Amino acid sequence: MFNRFWLLQVKKHLLTSLESGAQRALLDTRNVSLELLTIVFFGCLIGAVMCVVAEAFVLGVSAFGRWRAEDTLMVWTFADDTTLAYGSVVFLWVAASLVVVLKKVLGIKAYAGPADTIYAAQQVLEPLDVKRGIGSTFIAFICASGGASVGQYGPLVHFGATIGIWLKRLLSAKMSHEIFLGCGVAAAISAGFNAPLAGIVFAHEAVLRHFSIRAVAPISIAAISASALDKAWFPSNASFLIDAPMPPLADVLPALILMAPVLSLIALIFMLSLRRTQQFAAKVNRPMLLPFVAATLCGVVGIWLPQVLGLGVDSVNQMLAGHYVLELLLVLLIAKIMMSSLCIGLGLFGGVFSPAIFIGVAAGAFFGQLVEPMLVPGFALVAAVAAMAAVSASVIGAPITATLIVLELTQSYELAVAAMITVMICSLVTHRVFSLSFFDRQLLDRGIDLRLGREAIAMGQTSVADIVTQDHLVLAAEATGEQVLTLMQQAQLTEAYVCDAAGLLLGKVLIHQALMAGAKPVFDQMQTAPLRFCETDSLTSAMANTQGFVGESIPVVAASGKLIGSVTEGDLFTAVIRLQQKIRVLERS
């Protein structure tokens, strides 16, 4: 009877365990299936949206560019039958006028670009502004359509990130915001270059700055969907035409190595020009006039050098095909650096990726044509492609992405390896001298150092007011030392804060100061300037200021000086450890 009872209990336990296991397995299967469906749905949706937007952007800019080039009304004819087409100036003036109006109507104080995307991916307290992101992209379209010497990839990257964040807010999906943001970024690059691998790597390499198994699946689906739909819906819209045999790598390797430092210098000149122009514009009292200054100067230059206007895709293809002579290549290189810096810095907003590609191709084609007679035939194209990858990689801070773009555009392993040589050397030099990328330098100028990692950003955004406690003793100024000792004994503390009737912190009393005061008020013995934190102080500054501190707690006061609480060193360390654990879980999930 006893054995039968226990057998029944064991059987009951086994059945319960099996039933619980089956329920858990069913629940896990349902959760995984739901997550997969969510990933596929959002990935395909973002990929489709970015495919259409990217093509609409490029096709629209190209249509306005053809209109500007073929216009016969805005032409001056002189007595000797010399003609001068001034349509570039008029188009840019119209674009500048629309930019000024739209900025005011939309309330955009500063444009949003890849730097904002990168920063948004590293933290959650300062999310992307959807209206500002969409408005900035539309303004970039207007500027490029008017002929400003700007690019499309930066605005499209930020637009993709903005759409991803908007979809997350709209549909309240459980995936983290950085996954949606990364999907939009990857889809933008994939659709722009027809390079899904480059899009996936760019999202992780330049934006997210970490690799996550949970993020790579939706990001990959978004990038592949964007590329596949782009080929299906717009089969004849290839951006860059690169099709030529690759000379033996051993024959061109020395020349590529010698060319790389020169490309580093060119990339540095471009990024420094952009930065200095933006710094100058920030100091001007009437910024609304700056877009018209840029429009006038760029338009006048465009009269004689129309190649530097707009996105420059056709000009890049002409340079890759070897249709420009050495003198013209040098002039275009210098003019593109100047006009792109002028337009972007003075308010004709656009991307820096396309200008970097133009500048790289011009520099590489110039160097290639210069030394090709001394080397093997075909080196000029190799130099142009390698330089394109090197300069753009230094500007956007994504050397692996730039190499993959070459691989996917050319389908040539040898050409990709040749490009990697210049990419790595050029990126190393510019990283040491300038920064990881132009976007990182923009963030550094705002006081945001991404080199410190997500933990430093999270600590900088967490204030001591978030961890304040009330585990302290508050005294009136007239309290005697004996009274203070009694209160300390009851609270099991060795220090207390002295406040006036309004709650303003007057000082801090330690136990030995209370002993010295005896029957007299502790006011004369207290510390009048103890270490204190303002409620807006960040964990970063708090941790720095506690070096050398000895005591139980540190008072936290409002801007008025009123005591609102206290924190201990243990509270600070606990908050930092929790932030570190949270970020590690995010990056490893």
Q: Given this structure, which CATH class of the largest domain is correct?
A: Mainly Alpha
Proportion of residues in β-strands = 5-15%
Adjacency order of strands in the biggest sheet: 3-4-5
Average pLDDT score: 87
Number of helices: 22
Largest beta-sheet characterization? 3 strands, mixed
What is the CA-CA span between the terminal residues? Answer: 52 Å
Assign the CATH topology of the largest domain.
Clc chloride channel
Write the H/E string, N to C.
HEEHHHHHHHHHHHHHHHHHEHEEHEHEEH
Round the Cα radius of gyration to an integer and report it.
Answer: 31 Å
Task: Tell me what the structure shows.
The protein has 589 residues and is mainly α. The protein folds into 3 domains: 202 residues, Clc chloride channel; 206 residues, Clc chloride channel (Orthogonal Bundle), CATH 1.10.3080.10; 131 residues, Roll (CBS-domain). Helix content is 67%, strand content 5%. Strand 4 and strand 5 form a beta hairpin. The chain starts with a helix and ends with a helix.
Can you lay out the helices and strands and say which pair or pack?
Blueprint: H1 2-70, E1 75-77, E2 83-85, H2 87-106, H3 114-122, H4 130-146, H5 153-171, H6 177-193, H7 196-208, H8 213-233, H9 249-283, H10 290-304, H11 313-320, H12 326-345, H13 353-371, H14 379-396, H15 399-410, H16 413-433, H17 438-445, H18 453-461, E3 474-476, H19 481-491, E4 495-499, E5 505-510, H20 511-517, E6 533-534, H21 539-545, E7 554-557, E8 563-567, H22 569-588
Parallel strand pairs: 3-4, 6-7
Antiparallel strand pairs: 1-2, 4-5, 7-8
Helix pairs in contact: 1-4, 1-5, 1-6, 1-8, 2-4, 2-10, 3-6, 3-17, 4-5, 5-6, 6-7, 6-8, 7-8, 7-15, 9-12, 9-13, 9-14, 9-16, 10-12, 11-13, 12-13, 13-14, 14-15, 14-16, 15-16, 18-22, 19-20
